[in-house]
Amino acid sequence: MVAQASGPTRGDVYDYALGSRRIRVLVVSATAYSRVYPVIVLVHDRADGDVPGILLPLPGDLAGGGTIDLSRVRFADPAAFGHRHGRIAAALAAKVDHGLRRLLSLEQHRTSWIRTPGDDRRVDPSSY
């Protein structure tokens, strides 16, 4: 019996065909809901520095390094995936997850206060 390839999984770095260019991408979601069209972010070839929550350095020992650009998120064409370079470390995956949640306004705040128009009081939304 031959094992079937499971396809891209979260945290994998791949070569990817984007039009006529060959780039590298990081798979950020490949769940049952996005298995057909995984969600990816682009990886720049050069090291652009570290801008927490937006640009994160990809280690040099993984696909030659570069910069993970969290602002360049998109659904992937499954036919465009090429060579798999490897998987990012858990610590970097946590930074990617936190950055995407922040960038997409998905962070849950423990204390959420709103101001009512014309009123200086703060209202706790859980009291509604």
Describe the model.
This protein is mainly β. Helices cover 11% and strands 37% of the residues. It has one helix and eight strands; from the N terminus they run ββββββαββ. A six-stranded antiparallel β-sheet has the order 4-5-3-2-1-6. Strand 7 and strand 8 form a beta hairpin. The longest helix is centred in the C-terminal third of the chain and has 14 residues. The termini are far apart.
How many helices in DSSP terms?
1
Task: Indicate the mean pLDDT.
Answer: 80
**Could you give the count of β-strands?**
8
Please trace the helix and strand order, writing H or E for each element: EEEEEEHEE
Overall 3D form = globular
> Rg to the nearest angstrom?
19 Å
End-to-end distance: 59 Å
**Which spans of ≥5 residues are poorly predicted at pLDDT below 50?**
110-116, 123-128
- The proportion of strand residues reads 35-45%
Strand arrangement within the widest β-sheet reads 4-5-3-2-1-6
Helix content: 10-25%
What is the SS-derived class? mainly beta
